[in-house]
């Protein structure tokens, strides 16, 4: 099964960025753990700070891969273009947030992506990515 783990803006700074909220592990380190946890699946990792590049990645894999685990960062709260891209492709998309966005500022409570995703993981730290992959593997 092919699954894209996709991170949006500022998530390249994981490990250095507000570690009290997002933890001190880099995503590259965590991704290696994920690959060890799912050796039977083909996991690919991509990150971009650019909204259009995220749209292009969703188009690229969305008719081919079995799933996308997507942390869109702040674009979650702003991007109709990403919501439209997710709605346009048949692959299952799971929305992930490291922090519990509902326990934070009000502007983080609304997601344009949740209505077009299969489900949402928020507040479980990096473990949320693993749970999202676990879920996708149950679909096929
Ligand atoms: C985030 C939550 C967003 O509100 C924020 O803009 C991020 C990270 C999270 O993983 O908790 O960049 O998606």
UniProtKB/TrEMBL annotation:
Catalytic residues as annotated in Swiss-Prot or TrEMBL: 22, 97
Pfam families per record: DHquinase_II
Organism: Algivirga pacifica
SUPFAM superfamilies on file: Type II 3-dehydroquinate dehydratase
Name the UniProt record assigns to this protein: 3-dehydroquinate dehydratase
EC number: 4.2.1.10
Reaction(s) this enzyme catalyzes, per UniProt: 3-dehydroquinate = 3-dehydroshikimate + H2O
Job of this protein: Catalyzes a trans-dehydration via an enolate intermediate.
Gene behind this protein: aroQ
């Amino acid at each position: 099964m092919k699954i894209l783990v996709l991170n949006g803006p500022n998530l390249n700074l994981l490990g250095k960025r507000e570690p009290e909220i997002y933890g001190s592990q880099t995503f590259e380190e965590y991704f290696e753990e994920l690959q060890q946890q799912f050796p039977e699946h083909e996991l690919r990792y991509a990150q971009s700070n650019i909204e259009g590049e995220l749209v292009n990645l969703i188009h690229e894999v969305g008719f081919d891969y079995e799933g996308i685990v997507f942390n869109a960062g702040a674009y979650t709260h702003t991007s109709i273009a990403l919501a439209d891209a997710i709605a346009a492709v048949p692959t299952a998309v799971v929305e992930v947030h490291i922090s519990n966005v509902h326990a934070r500022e009000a502007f983080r409570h609304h997601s344009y992506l949740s209505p077009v995703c299969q489900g949402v993981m928020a507040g479980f730290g990096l473990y949320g990515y693993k749970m999202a992959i676990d879920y996708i593997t149950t679909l096929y």
